[in-house]
């Protein structure tokens, strides 16, 4: 964190930049006169401080342009502003990602979209790659942290080099290990999971893969890389609800919300058609493609959320609850 005197210096520089925007082109003498408390002493001292201020303004992303016309003036061009390159140590990046991730869990955060965009740029666009900086938890049915780190690195390299990968991928619904050739398009952190969005050569469509279910990963040079469409956006996939993942054919589901959840049902299921019952409960009807994902989410919502349809979702809820009750 900057020291107090560093913050004061940056505030002074921002005032200087704002003055240029308001005043327009100005000579050094005009700057000295406008900021007489800052530029004091001999001409050499003023010149030294002015040289340092120009350099520091450029470091902050506000370059001054010099023109020999009009007696040698400096000016700030509004369209020349830029954000300086950010650099974080692994520890700093991990702290930022942890804090941002915690804030993003609050859907009412006033800067939710901006924070999500900044975190995505930190993860994907920055020089820091989160798996190298953070400690990834081991899932009960997943890969060890070291494996996750190496696979995230391999995914990132494959995206940059446009190379296909071969995955040994565990499908829990069938308790089966499958072999897949994929062309990675992007990856994201969502709901405590690292997910890979990739073109599946077997399915000939884009799919989401959970990295904790990957049991092996290597290059697949024979598969060839299928480029993502021009409008591909990893956010469209990483923001999917648990019941949206392409696991089954589309089914219509109905969930009944009571109590406090009835009031916020539109926020819980934004895409649903809602109806209100006589007891003020609300029934949400929407399409799902992953029954287990729907059931897990309803169980997470608690007793005020009840799955009404489809019938197999109710059966799965009973099975999951029974497994929980029978767990040691």
Q: How far is the N terminus from the C terminus?
A: 47 Å
The number of helices is 12
* Proportion of residues in extended strands: 15-25%
Major sheet strand order: 6-5-4-3-7
Mean pLDDT: 78
Spell the H/E element sequence.
HHHEEHHHHEEEEEHEHHEEHEH
Classify the helix fraction into a percent range: 40-55%
Instruction: Give a count of the beta strands, DSSP E runs of length 2 or more.
Output: 11
Whole-angstrom Rg: 28 Å
Class from helix and strand fractions: alpha+beta
Largest sheet: 5 strands, antiparallel
Give the overall silhouette: elongated
The low-pLDDT segments are 125-141
Structure description:
The protein is of the alpha+beta class. Helices cover 41% and strands 22% of the residues. The strands form 3 sheets. Strands 6-5-4-3-7 form a 5-stranded antiparallel sheet. It has a 4-stranded antiparallel sheet with strand order 9-10-8-11. A hairpin with a 5-residue loop joins strand 1 and strand 2 (73-76). Helix 4 (90-104) packs antiparallel against helix 5 (112-125) and helix 11 (291-301) packs across helix 12 (311-326). The longest helix is centred in the N-terminal third of the chain and has 20 residues, at 4-23. The model is unreliable at 125-141 (pLDDT under 50).
Concise structural overview:
This protein has 328 residues and is an alpha+beta fold.
Summary keywords:
5-stranded antiparallel beta sheet, alpha+beta
Write the layout of secondary structure elements.
Layout: H1 4-23, H2 28-34, H3 43-59, E1 64-67, E2 73-76, H4 90-104, H5 112-125, H6 130-133, H7 145-161, E3 165-171, E4 176-190, E5 193-200, E6 205-210, E7 214-219, H8 234-238, E8 251-257, H9 259-263, H10 265-268, E9 273-276, E10 282-288, H11 291-301, E11 305-309, H12 311-326
Antiparallel strand pairs: 1-2, 3-4, 3-7, 4-5, 5-6, 8-10, 8-11, 9-10
Helix pairs in contact: 4-5, 11-12
């Amino acid at each position: 964190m900057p020291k107090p005197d560093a913050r004061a210096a940056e505030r002074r520089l921002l005032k200087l930049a704002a003055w240029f925007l308001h005043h327009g082109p100005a000579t050094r003498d005009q700057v000295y006169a406008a900021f007489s408390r800052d530029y004091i002493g001999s001409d050499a001292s003023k010149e030294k401080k002015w040289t340092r201020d120009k350099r520091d303004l450029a470091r902050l992303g506000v370059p001054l342009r010099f023109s020999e016309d009009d007696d040698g003036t400096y000016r700030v061009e509004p369209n020349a502003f830029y954000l300086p390159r950010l650099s974080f140590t692994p520890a700093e990046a991990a702290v930022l990602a942890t804090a941002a991730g915690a804030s993003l869990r609050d859907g009412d955060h006033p800067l939710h979209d901006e924070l999500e965009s900044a975190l995505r740029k930190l993860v994907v666009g920055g020089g820091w790659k989160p798996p190298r900086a953070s400690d990834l938890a081991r899932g009960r049915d997943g890969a060890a942290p070291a494996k996750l780190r190496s696979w995230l690195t391999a995914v990132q390299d494959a995206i940059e080099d446009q190379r296909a990968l071969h995955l040994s991928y565990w499908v829990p619904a069938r308790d089966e290990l499958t072999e897949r050739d994929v062309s990675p398009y992007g990856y994201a952190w969502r709901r405590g999971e690292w997910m890979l969005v990739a073109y599946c050569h077997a399915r000939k469509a884009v799919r989401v893969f959970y990295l904790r279910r990957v049991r092996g990963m290597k290059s697949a040079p024979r598969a060839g890389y299928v480029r993502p469409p021009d409008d591909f956006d990893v956010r469209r996939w990483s923001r999917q609800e648990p019941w949206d993942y392409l696991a089954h054919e589309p089914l219509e589901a109905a969930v009944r919300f009571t109590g406090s959840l009835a009031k916020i049902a539109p926020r819980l299921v934004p895409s649903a058609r809602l109806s209100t019952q006589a007891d003020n409960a609300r029934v949400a009807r929407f399409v799902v493609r992953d029954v287990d994902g729907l059931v897990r989410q309803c169980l997470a919502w608690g007793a005020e959320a009840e799955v009404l349809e489809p019938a197999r979702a109710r059966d799965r809820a009973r099975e999951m609850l029974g497994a929980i009750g029978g767990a040691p």
